[in-house]
């Protein structure tokens, strides 16, 4: 089960990924997608793998 959220700061200069997943692979895919969408944004991956 995945319960993920993406928070993008005004201006798109900062992205925070939050939520819970059972897989490191899903965490990695979420991070990769955020980097592709906003390559110059500062990224914080706060997704917890359970």
Structure in words:
The protein has 50 residues and is α+β, with helices and mostly antiparallel strands. It is built from 1 helix and 3 strands, in the order E-E-H-E. Strands 1-2-3 form a 3-stranded mixed β-sheet, with helices on one face. The model has no long low-confidence stretch (mean pLDDT 93).
Radius of gyration from CA coordinates: 10 Å
Helix/strand class: alpha+beta
Instruction: Indicate the proportion of strand residues.
Output: 35-45%
Largest sheet: 3 strands, mixed
Residue-averaged pLDDT:
93
Number of strands: 3
Q: Measure the end-to-end span.
A: 10 Å
Low confidence ranges: none
As a percent range, the share of helical residues equals 25-40%
**Could you give the order of strands across the largest sheet?**
1-2-3
Separate helix tally: 1
Morphology call: elongated
Secondary-structure element series? EEHE
Question: Main traits of this protein?
Answer:
50 residues, alpha+beta, 3-stranded mixed sheet, 28% helix, elongated
Strand-helix topology:
Blueprint (H helix, E strand, L loop, with lengths): L2 E6 L5 E8 L2 H14 L4 E8 L1
Parallel strand pairs: 2-3
Antiparallel strand pairs: 1-2
Task: Provide a compact summary of the structure.
With 50 residues, the protein is α+β, with helices and mostly antiparallel strands.
């Amino acid at each position: 089960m995945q319960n993920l959220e993406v928070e993008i700061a005004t201006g798109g200069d900062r992205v925070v990924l939050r939520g819970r997943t059972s897989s490191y692979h899903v965490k990695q895919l979420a991070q990769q997608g955020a980097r592709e969408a906003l390559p110059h944004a500062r990224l914080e991956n706060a997704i917890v793998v359970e």
